[in-house]
Amino acid sequence: MSNNQTNMYDVDLHVAEIYDRNETYTEDLELIRDLISEHGSLRILEPFCGTGRILIPLAHDGHAIVGLDQAGGMLARLR
Question: Quick check: helix, strand or coil at residue 11?
Fold first, then answer.
């Protein structure tokens, strides 16, 4: 077990940009939309939200969203 307390997503602010370029799949988002579609507008909490790959589309769908993440660089890009 490592005692390294460095969050790899906070080492360089460009990591969030690289993450967004590589994480382009949408199957999980489509599944979530299908699962919640019959419930109308929801309040959604997404831990480990990163740059908002799932959170932002759900907000555009009309849901009230809150995202949490330890990586400041990812949250800065989300904002």
Answer: coil
When divided into structural domains, the chain yields a total of 1
CATH number for position 25:
3.40.50.150
Mean pLDDT of 37-57: 95
The residue to which tokens 């005692």 are assigned: 3
Task: Give CA–CA dist 17/73, Å, rounded.
Answer: 9
Please report which residue ranges of the chain form alpha helices under DSSP H. 14-22, 27-36, 55-60, 72-78
Distance (Å, whole) CA 78 – CA 69: 10
Rounded Cα distance, 79 and 76, in Å: 5
pTM (global) more than 0.85: no
